[in-house]
Amino acid sequence: MKRSNPAGDEEEPLWGAFTPGGKLMMGSDDEGTYIFSLIDQNTLDYCYSETGRSPRSVCARLTRQP
Question: How many separate domains does the chain show?
């Protein structure tokens, strides 16, 4: 997965699975887990959670840029 951060773009492996309809997805990387919900062809809601010494959870909406 490639994502942009204020410090610059980051790329890391992401493993996941889809429900049969493809609207709900679950993913994980080396640090935590993701839940994705496909809203439409240009919009994806997601939440990310990680545990450990500095646990955190965040949710956001991703919109495809033209």
Answer: 1
